[in-house]
Design a protein that fits this description.
Layout (H helix, E strand, L loop, with lengths): L9 H8 L12 E6 L6 E9 L4 E9 L3 H14 L4 H7 L2 H7 L8 H22 L13 H4 L4 H21 L1
Antiparallel strand pairs: 1-2, 2-3
Helix pairs in contact: 1-2, 2-5, 4-5
The chain binds FE2/S2 (inorganic) cluster (FES).
Length: about 170
């Protein structure tokens, strides 16, 4: 079965072909792995943080996702560079990232949500691993993007549950 290519704009295609800040970061301050329940794809997001100033010095990612995910992750790594953790938390939303990239087909919005969710999980993780308690600007309840970017284990559980339901449906037919 042949697939109709999605109408990605040139900016998305360019970042997909030439992503910025792609690859493992060996000296990362914090690493977050997140997966999307909609498609089962995963991303690893790395942040190098100036801990005194609470500023993101660099960000990198590894993606096992689609073109939209690679392009949005790439642009997130550029948008957060030089921002304080608080500003990155507040300013970087999936809507803003989607705008910045010139738009995405609506069936691909979740791919950008995954990129931002991984960033937010990494910021939350930073404070969790320091064991200092989160600052007041991080809500106790996970944000929409974090909820859509599940941790590896949660994702595996969600996917295996979905697989089981599909198998049961098939068996009923
Ligand atoms: S389809 Fe899974 S990240 Fe895009």
């Amino acid at each position: 079965m042949s697939r109709i290519p999605l109408p990605y704009n040139p900016k998305v295609m360019d970042l997909f072909r030439n992503p910025k800040n792609l690859g493992k970061m060996d000296d990362a301050t914090v690493v977050a792995v997140a997966g999307n329940p909609a498609c089962g794809d995963m991303i690893t997001f790395y942040l190098k943080i100036d801990e005194e100033k609470q500023v993101i010095m660099k960000a990198q990612f590894e993606s096992y996702g689609c073109a939209a995910n690679i392009a949005t992750s790439s642009i997130v790594t550029e948008m957060v560079k030089g921002l304080t953790l608080e500003k990155a938390w507040e300013d970087i939303t999936w809507k803003k990232v989607t705008e910045e990239i010139g738009g995405l087909p609506s069936v691909k919005f979740h791919c950008g949500v995954l990129a931002v969710g991984a960033l937010k999980r990494a910021i939350r993780q930073y404070f969790t691993q320091k064991n200092v308690g989160g600052p007041s600007w991080i809500p106790a309840e996970h944000t929409f993007e974090e909820k859509q970017a599940l941790e590896e284990e949660e994702l595996a559980k969600t996917l295996s549950k979905r697989l089981k339901i599909e198998e049961e449906k098939k068996a009923e037919k």
